[in-house]
Write a structure and sequence with these properties.
The complex is a heterotrimer of chains A (331), B (782) and C (175). Chain A starts with 6 loop residues before the first strand and ends with a helix. Among the domains of chain A are: 1-52, Uridine Diphospho-n-acetylenolpyruvylglucosamine Reductase, domain 2; 220-327, CO dehydrogenase flavoprotein, C-terminal domain (Enolase-like, domain 1), CATH 3.30.390. Chain A is globular, with a radius of gyration of 20 Å. In chain A, the strands form three sheets. In chain A, strands 4-5-8-6-7 form a five-stranded antiparallel β-sheet. By secondary structure, chain A is an alpha+beta fold. In chain A, 28% of the residues lie in helices and 20% in strands. Chain A has helices at 14-24, 37-42, 78-83, 85-90, 92-99, 104-109, 112-116, 165-170, 271-276, 284-294, 305-327; strands spanning 7-9, 28-31, 50-53, 63-64, 70-73, 174-179, 182-187, 207-213, 220-227, 238-246, 252-261, 280-281. Chain B has three domains: 27-130 and 201-247 and 254-286, Aldehyde Oxidoreductase, domain 3 (Alpha-Beta Complex); 367-460 and 631-781, 2-Layer Sandwich (Aldehyde Oxidoreductase, domain 4); 463-609, Aldehyde Oxidoreductase, domain 4. Chain B is α+β, with helices and mostly antiparallel strands. Chain B is globular and about 90 Å long. Chain C is α+β, with helices and mostly antiparallel strands. Chain C is elongated, with a radius of gyration of 18 Å. Classes of the chains: A alpha+beta (331), B alpha+beta (782), C alpha+beta (175). Chains in contact: A-B, A-C, B-C. At the B-C interface, helix 1, helix 3 and helix 19 of B face helix 2, helix 3, helix 4 and helix 5 of C.
C-alpha cells in the first residue's frame, strides 16, 4: 500500500515514455516491472510523482543479429530470459543468473532493464523512516550515514545487488540507450557511476532500450556463483562472475574477466588480477587470493568485510576452476 | 469395545476446505460498514521524556474522526504477568516517557489510510532525550540509565539496576556436589533475537455498538484478550465480545494485550464507528514483540561415569522495555532445565533485565531452546572429556518412569529413555559420531556430522483462565453442535476436539459442527498458548460428550427396558448388548428425552482444569508449587553438512522421537514436528532480528531470513506411546507443539561440532562463526 | 526527489482515477481506482474477494500471489492500473462450487495447510507451475515456490501435495 498519490501513464512506445519522463523531469520514474520500485515507494525512499509504465509495450523476443551478437529487449521479463532457448543455448550464464533472481513471481514480473537499474540497498536505507532512522542520510538528501556515523565524506555505502549486471559486464554487452534526442550506445560497464548516491549514468529521461551481447570466442569458459543464506528469495551475499578464453593448448589463459556484485556501490572488477591472468597458466588458488585482496567489499546486510572477502576468495577459486573446465569442454 | 474409530487416526483438518478455497475468514478479512482506519504514532527514540504533545493540527484535518493519547484512557495498567509481586507495569499508550523505539504514543482514526497517515504527521511532540541502555549486563550495573526501578525484593538484596524480576531456585548443596564431582566444567552460551514470523500481520477490528464492544483480533486465546481489554477499558466482561476469526499463525506473538487493540476499541467508542488497525510488517519488526535472547552461564559437575552431581545456572534475559513475558521466561528456563535429567544438587538464578529494546513475548519454546542448547552442548563436551559417548551420558541421567521431580511433579510414564534409545538406533549415532573428525574425507570440503539433543516440555499449567469448558448440544436428528472456546491457529484444535466428540458419541466427523473461540457464545477456554489445549480442552470435550452420552443412555435404558450398562453406542444408535435387535436411533432417544424429561434436548457439559489440587501457578520468583501434570519428552537428532572452506552449513536430516503420551491425530502431530524442525533450522542458521541502538535493521522478510522451501530438511519422526485413550475415561496427552524446537537446535550445534570440531557457544551458527572456529582449531593444531 | 507535502494530491491536483475493466475468475469487472491502488487492494476491497492474503505488502512472502494472464504475480506490489484488460485468477477460482480441485484435495491429504494464511498464494504458485509443467521435479517445485513463505508446515507437506497431484508416487497421508 503506497500512502501518497501519484500520476500514472502507460505510453505505447519507449519514445513516448522518454518524452513523458523528459517533460516531468526528475520527479518521474519508469515503471518496468516494479519489483524494486514498488517496495521502495511504499517505504517512501523514492517518491516519484509520475510513473511511466512500460507494461503497454510488448518486448521483442531475443534475436541473433547479423554480426552474431544477440539483441535482448530491455523489457524482456526475467522468466522469459530464463526460458528463451536462444539464451539457454548461446548465453547459458545469463539464463542461470536470471534464474537466481529473487523468486519466481519476481522473475515473472521483473524486466531485464529494471533489474539492471535497481536501486542500491542498505539495511538502514531500505526502511520506513517515520520513526526509525528519521534523520535523512546522504542518500535521502540529508547529512549523515546511518551505518557508518564516521563516514563524513558524503558517500553512500549502499550496495548494488543485481545478479545479472556482472554477467553482462563480463560478456562485454553494449546498451542501447534511448533518450529524448535519440539513441546512443554505451558499454555495459559504463552504466555505473560507482557512486552509491547516484549509481547510474543515465540521464533523467533516458531508458535502456536493448542489450547487445557479442558472440563469445572459441575455448570460452564461464563460471557464476551467487552466495545466499537461503538458496532462493535472497539478494546475494556476494556474486561472482568469471569468464575467460583459453589458448589452443587448453591450459594457457588468453584473457579473463572477474566481476563481483552485491559488494560495492556498483559492480567491482579486480583489474590488476585480471591483467595477471593474461597469457598465463592459472593457479586458481593464487588468483582467488589476489582478486579477493584487490577489491574492497563493502559490509552489507549483516555481513562484515572479512567474511565477505573470505567468501569471495573461496568462491572465486571454485568459480575459476569451473570456468576453466568449461573452456576445456569438461562441463 | 475399545476399538477407536476417530481418535488416534490421521484425520484431515476440519477447517481444511475453508482454508484451501479462500473462504476462511481471518481478522484481516473482517469488513464492517463505515469502518475507519487506525494508525499509531510511535516513538523515534529508544528513551526519552515526552515534554509536550500537540494534537490540534491532526484533529483539525478533514477526514480525521478521532485522535487519542494516554489521556483518553482510564490509566489502568496491564502486564503479561499480573501478580502481587509483579504488578502490571505497562500503560496502554506512553505516558510522559518512552522507553523503546516504536513505543505507541498516540493513535488516530480516519476515513482512509492516507488521511490517517497525514494526521500522524501533524502531531507535534517535543521530546527530551534520555540516555538509553541496550546490553543487559550494562543495564544491571549501578549507575546505568534507569528504565524502571529494580524490583524491590531484588533491590534490597542486590545492587543491580533495571531488574524486572528474578527467579531463584535450587535443591541439595551445589558446593558439596561440585566437590564430589570428578569433572567440572563452566561455559557461557548466548542466544540471539528472533521473531515469530506469523504470516498474518496483527489486525484488530473493534466496533462499539449498543453499549457493547465487538472485537476481532489476532489472538491465541480469546478469553485472555477479553480479560485484558475489559480491564484497561474498565468494562464488565459481558460488554466485550471477542469474535472468532481464523489466525494466520502466532507462535507466541499474539498473546497479551497490544496497544493497537486498546486504540481500536477506544477510538470506536469515541467515534461510534468500527475501527481497524493493521500493523505493517515494518511495525511488527521494529516495534512489536519478539522472542527472548538469553545468556546462560552454566557450570556442571559429573562423576567419571557421566552421572550428573551438580549444576549451577545463571541466566540473564535481555527483557526489553516492559516486563512482558521476560519474568516468565527466566522461570520457564528453570523448568526446562529441571525436567529431563536428574540433578541431585542444583542452584538456579535467572534475571530478567529491562533494556531499551522492544518488549518481549513468548515465542514457541519460550526459553526451552535457549537452555537446551546450552545444556546439551555442554553435556556433549563433558562426555567427550570423560570418554563416554553422547548416548551413554544421556541415558545415565535421563528421567525414568514414575520419578518425582524436585517440584513434586511426577513424570508418570516418561518415555525419555526410550526416545533416546530409538533416536540413537535410528540414526546409528554412536557408530557415525566422530567419523569425519577422525578421518576427514580428502576429496571434498564437506564434512558430515551427527548430534543429539533432548528436551522435556510442560503440557498445560495454571494461567488465566486456568480451565476450559465445552458444551455438546445434541440436535434432534442425532448430530451435534460443539461449543468450545478453543482457538485454531493452524495446530488443528477444532479437528482434535471433533475427533474426541465423534469417538465418545459414536458420531461421524461430519455429524459434528464446531462453534469456537467466541467469548459470548462459547465456554471459557485456556487458549492455545500454554501447550495444554489438547489435554485440557480435549478432556473437557470428552467430559461434555460423556455427559451427553450418560443422558442418552438413561433415556434409552428407560425406552428399551434394559439397564444402562447393557447399552452401547454405535453409529448414532444405542444398542443392547444382550439383544442387539433391541436398538434405538439417537433421533428416537432424543425425541424420548424431550417427551419424557421435560424437554431435555440433551446438552452435555464438560470442564477440565489441570492440577485440580493446586491453587495457583508455581511462584515465578521461587518456583515453589507444582507446574504441570504431564511432561512431554523427546530426543532429536540432526545430521548436518558443513563446508569447511566457506563455513556454510545445512541441516540435511532431522529425526524426532517423542513421547506425546498418545497422539489424538498423528497426522497433525507430524505437521507440528515438521514446522518445529523448520523453525529450529531457521534459528540455527539464518534468522536474526538485527538491531542497532534499539532500532531494528532488518524490517522485512528479505532481510529477516525465515526458511524458504529450499531449506527444508528431511524430517522423520517416531512416536513413543506411553498413554492410552479409552472411551469414557480421562486421558493424558502431552505437549507436542512447541518443545520440539529445542532438542533439534541443540542437536544441530552438536552435529556441527561432530562434523568440524568447532564448538559454538552462540546462535545463530553462521558461516562466519564456523569459519572463525575452524581457524582457531588450525592455530591450535600448529 | 518529490517531497510529499500533501499525500492526497500530486503537485496540488488530485490524481486521475481510471476505470479499469478486468476479468476476475472469469467474470468481467469494472472498477475505478487511483494509480496508487495495488491489485491486491482492488481484489480484496473493490471486488470483495478476500481469499487472497496480505502478509507483507512488499513482495517478500507470496501470500498475495494471484495469476495474471496465467503468470504468478505478487498482487501487493502490482498496481491495479497495470492490470487493465487482464485475466486475473485467485484462489476462489480453483474449486468448482463445493468440489475442490485435485490440488486443493492434495493439500488436505498431505497436511499442506495449517494456519492457512500462506495457502492461497501457495496454491496459485503451484497452479501456475503445474499448468506449465505437469510433472515438476523437486527442483522445479523449489524454484516455483521459493517466493512463498510458510511458517507452519516446514514445506515438506506442500512439496508432497504437489508430488501427489502430479502423480509422482506420493500417497495421501491423512484420512
Amino acid at each position: 500500500m503506497i500512502l501518497y498519490d501519484f500520476e500514472y501513464e502507460r505510453p505505447g512506445s519507449l519514445k513516448e515514455a522518454t518524452a513523458l519522463l523528459n517533460e516531468t523531469g526528475g520527479d518521474a520514474q519508469l515503471l518496468a516491472g516494479g519489483t524494486d520500485l514498488m517496495p521502495n515507494m511504499r517505504v517512501e525512499v523514492v517518491t516519484p510523482s509520475l510513473l511511466v509504465s512500460v507494461s503497454g509495450i510488448e518486448p521483442a523476443a531475443p534475436e541473433k543479429c547479423a554480426d552474431g551478437s544477440i539483441r535482448i529487449d530491455s523489457l524482456t521479463k526475467l522468466s522469459d530470459l530464463v526460458d528463451a532457448e536462444l539464451i539457454q543455448n548461446e548465453l547459458p550464464m545469463l539464463a542461470e543468473a536470471a534464474h537466481t533472481v529473487a523468486s519466481n513471481q519476481v522473475r515473472v514480473m521483473g524486466t531485464l532493464g529494471g533489474n539492471l537499474c535497481q536501486e542500491t540497498r542498505c539495511l538502514y536505507y531500505n526502511q520506513k523512516h517515520d520513526y526509525q532512522f528519521v534523520e535523512p542520510c546522504y542518500k535521502r538528501g540529508g547529512d549523515c550515514c546511518y551505518p557508518f556515523p564516521g563516514n563524513d565524506r558524503d558517500v553512500c555505502w549502499a550496495v548494488y545487488m543485481s545478479d545479472i549486471a556482472p554477467v553482462l559486464i563480463a560478456l562485454d554487452a553494449k546498451l542501447e540507450i534511448l533518450g529524448p534526442d535519440g539513441t546512443r550506445e554505451i558499454a555495459m560497464a559504463d552504466l555505473y557511476t560507482g557512486d552509491g548516491m547516484n549509481p547510474f549514468t543515465l540521464g533523467t529521461a533516458e531508458i535502456i532500450q536493448a542489450i547487445f551481447v557479442p558472440p563469445v570466442p572459441e575455448r570460452f569458459g564461464w563460471g557464476y556463483h551467487k552466495t545466499t543464506v537461503r538458496g532462493g528469495l535472497d539478494f546475494g551475499t556476494a556474486i561472482i562472475v568469471i569468464v575467460l578464453q583459453l589458448a589452443e593448448d587448453g591450459e594457457t589463459c588468453c584473457w579473463a574477466k572477474i566481476v563481483y556484485s552485491a559488494v560495492g556501490q556498483g559492480p567491482l572488477r579486480p583489474t590488476t588480477t585480471e591483467l595477471s591472468m593474461e597469457d598465463a597458466v592459472l593457479d586458481p588458488a593464487l588468483i582467488a587470493v589476489a582478486a579477493s585482496q584487490e577489491i574492497s567489499p563493502l559490509p552489507h546486510h549483516g555481513f562484515n568485510k572479512g567474511f565477505l572477502r573470505e567468501n569471495i576468495r573461496v568462491y572465486t577459486e571454485r568459480t575459476l576452476v569451473s570456468a576453466i573446465e568449461c573452456a576445456q569442454g569438461k562441463i | 469395545m475399545n476399538q477407536l474409530r476417530h481418535v488416534g487416526k490421521s484425520v484431515k483438518r476440519k477447517d481444511g476446505p475453508d482454508k484451501v478455497t479462500g473462504r476462511a475468514v481471518y481478522c484481516q478479512d473482517v469488513r464492517l460498514p463505515g469502518m475507519l482506519t487506525g494508525r499509531i504514532l510511535r516513538s523515534p527514540h529508544p528513551h526519552a521524556k515526552i515534554v509536550s504533545i500537540d494534537l490540534s493540527k491532526a484533529k483539525a484535518l478533514d477526514g480525521v474522526k478521532g485522535v487519542i493519547t494516554i489521556e483518553d484512557s482510564k490509566g489502568i495498567k496491564h502486564g503479561f504477568v499480573e501478580t502481587p509481586r509483579y504488578p502490571p507495569d505497562q500503560e496502554v499508550l506512553a505516558r510522559d516517557r518512552v522507553v523503546h523505539v516504536g513505543e505507541e504514543i498516540a493513535a488516530v482514526a480516519a476515513i482512509d489510510d492516507i488521511t490517517a497517515q497525514a494526521a500522524l504527521e501533524l502531531i507535534d511532540i517535543e521530546y527530551e532525550i534520555l540516555p538509553p541502555v541496550f546490553n543487559p549486563h550494562k543495564a544491571m550495573q549501578e549507575g546505568s540509565p534507569e528504565i524502571h526501578p529494580s524490583h524491590p525484593k531484588v533491590a534490597e538484596k542486590e545492587s543491580f539496576s533495571n531488574i524486572g524480576g528474578k527467579t531463584e531456585s535450587g535443591w541439595g548443596d551445589v558446593e558439596q556436589g561440585f566437590a564430589e564431582a570428578d569433572y567440572v566444567r563452566e561455559d557461557r552460551y548466548e542466544s540471539h533475537l528472533r521473531t515469530h514470523g506469523y504470516l498474518e500481520p496483527q489486525v484488530t477490528v473493534a466496533h462499539w455498538e449498543s453499549d457493547k464492544l465487538n472485537v476481532w483480533t489476532s489472538s491465541m486465546g480469546a478469553f485472555n484478550k477479553r480479560a485484558k481489554l475489559a480491564k484497561v477499558l474498565d468494562l464488565p466482561y459481558s460488554s466485550v465480545r471477542v469474535h472468532k476469526a481464523y489466525v494466520g499463525g502466532a507462535f507466541g506473538g499474539k498473546i497479551d494485550l497490544y496497544s493497537h487493540e486498546f486504540c481500536a476499541a477506544r477510538l470506536s467508542m469515541l467515534t461510534g464507528r468500527p475501527v481497524r488497525f493493521v500493523a505493517s510488517r515494518e511495525e511488527i519488526f521494529s516495534a512489536y514483540r519478539h522472542g527472548q535472547p538469553l545468556v546462560v552461564e552454566l557450570k556442571t559437575g559429573v562423576k567419571k561415569d557421566g552421572t550428573l552431581v551438580a549444576q549451577e545456572l545463571r541466566i540473564i534475559n535481555n527483557a526489553g522495555a516492559y516486563r512482558g513475558s521476560g519474568v516468565v521466561v527466566v522461570f520457564l528456563a528453570w523448568g526446562f532445565t529441571m525436567a529431563p535429567y536428574r540433578v541431585p544438587n542444583l542452584k538456579y538464578e535467572g534475571y530478567s533485565v529491562y533494556t531499551n529494546h522492544t518488549t518481549r513475548a513468548p515465542q514457541r519454546g519460550h526459553g526451552c531452546p535457549q537452555v537446551r542448547f546450552a545444556i546439551e552442548s555442554q553435556l556433549d563436551t563433558i562426555a567427550e572429556e570423560i570418554g563416554i559417548d553422547p548416548i551413554e551420558i544421556r541415558l545415565r541421567n535421563a528421567r525414568v518412569p514414575d520419578e518425582e521431580l524436585p517440584n513434586k511433579d511426577n513424570v508418570h510414564q516418561a518415555g525419555l529413555q526410550e526416545c533416546i534409545k530409538i533416536a540413537a538406533k535410528k540414526t546409528n549415532l554412536v557408530a557415525k559420531y566422530g567419523r569425519d573428525r577422525k578421518s576427514p574425507p580428502q576429496d571434498t570440503s564437506i564434512r558430515r556430522g551427527v548430534g543429539i539433543g533432548i528436551s522435556s516440555y510442560m503440557s498445560g499449567t495454571l494461567i488465566y483462565p486456568n480451565g476450559s469448558g465445552v458444551i455438546v448440544k445434541m440436535n434432534d436428528d442425532g448430530s451435534a453442535i460443539v461449543l468450545t472456546g478453543a482457538i485454531d491457529l493452524g495446530q488443528g484444535a477444532e479437528t482434535v476436539i471433533t475427533q474426541i466428540i465423534a469417538e465418545e458419541l459414536s458420531l461421524d466427523m461430519d455429524d459434528i459442527k464446531i462453534i469456537a473461540s467466541d467469548t459470548d457464545t462459547t465456554p471459557q477456554d485456556i487458549g492455545a498458548w500454554i501447550s495444554g489445549l489438547t489435554y485440557v480442552t480435549g478432556n473437557a470435550a470428552r467430559q461434555a460428550a460423556t455427559n451427553a452420552r450418560a443422558k442418552l443412555l438413561i433415556v434409552a435404558a428407560e425406552q428399551m427396558n434394559v439397564t444402562a450398562d447393557d447399552l452401547y453406542l454405535d453409529n448414532k444408535e444405542i444398542i443392547s448388548q444382550s439383544n442387539p435387535d433391541n436398538r434405538l436411533s439417537y433421533r428416537e432417544v432424543i425425541a424420548a428425552s424431550v417427551a419424557n424429561h421435560r424437554g431435555d434436548t440433551v446438552i452435555g457439559e464438560g470442564f477440565w482444569r489441570t492440577m485440580r489440587d493446586e491453587p495457583n501457578h508455581p511462584s515465578l520468583a521461587t518456583t515453589k508449587g507444582r507446574w504441570t501434570e504431564n511432561y512431554a519428552f523427546s530426543a532429536q537428532t540432526a545430521e548436518v553438512e558443513v563446508d569447511i572452506e566457506t563455513g556454510e552449513a545445512r541441516l540435511a536430516k532431522a529425526l524426532t522421537v517423542h513421547d506425546c503420551g498418545f497422539p489424538i491425530n498423528p497426522g497433525l502431530v507430524k505437521g507440528q514436528i515438521d514446522g518445529q524442525v523448520s523453525m529450529a533450522l531457521g534459528h540455527a542458521f539464518m534468522e536474526e532480528v538485527m538491531t542497532k541502538d534499539g532500532y531494528t535493521l532488518n524490517t522485512s522478510w528479505l532481510d529477516y531470513r525465515m526458511p524458504t522451501i529450499h531449506n527444508m530438511a528431511e524430517s522423520e519422526d517416531a512416536d513413543v506411546i506411553t498413554e492410552q485413550y479409552e472411551v469414557g475415561q480421562s486421558y493424558r496427552t502431552k505437549e507436542v507443539g512447541e518443545g520440539l524446537v529445542s532438542g533439534i537446535l541443540a542437536a544441530i550445534a552438536n552435529a556441527i561440532y561432530d562434523a568440524t570440531g568447532v564448538r559454538l557457544y552462540s546462535t545463530p551458527f553462521s558461516p562466519e562463526k564456523i569459519l572463525k572456529g575452524l581457524r582457531e582449531l588450525e592455530r591450535h593444531q600448529k | 526527489m518529490n517531497q510529499i507535502n500533501d499525500r492526497t494530491t500530486v503537485n496540488g491536483k488530485k490524481s486521475r482515477s481510471r476505470v479499469l475493466e478486468m476479468s476476475i475468475n472469469g467474470e468481467a469487472h469494472e472498477i475505478t481506482v487511483k494509480p496508487r491502488v495495488m491489485l491486491l487492494e482492488a481484489i480484496r476491497e473493490k471486488i470483495g474477494l478476500t481469499g487472497t492474503k496480505d502478509g507483507c505488502e512488499s513482495g517478500t512472502c507470496g501470500a498475495c500471489t494471484v495469476l495474471v494472464d496465467g503468470q504468478p504475480t505478487l498482487s501487493c506490489i502490482t498496481l491495479a492500473v497495470e492490470c487493465e484488460g487482464k485475466n486475473i485468477r485467485t484462489v476462489e477460482d480453483l474449486a468448482d462450487g463445493e468440489n475442490l480441485n485435485y490440488l486443493q484435495e492434495a493439500f488436505l491429504d498431505q497436511g499442506g495447510t495449517q494456519c492457512g494464511f500462506c495457502t492461497p498464494g501457495m496454491l496459485m504458485s503451484a497452479t501456475a507451475l503445474l499448468e506449465k509443467n505437469p510433472k515438476p521435479t523437486r527442483d522445479d517445485i523449489n524454484k516455483a515456490l521459493e517466493g512463498n513463505l510458510c511458517r507452519c508446515t516446514g514445506y515438506n507437506s506442500i512439496v508432497d501435495s504437489i508430488l501427489q497431484v502430479s502423480d509422482q508416487g506420493v500417497k495421501p497421508r491423512l484420512l
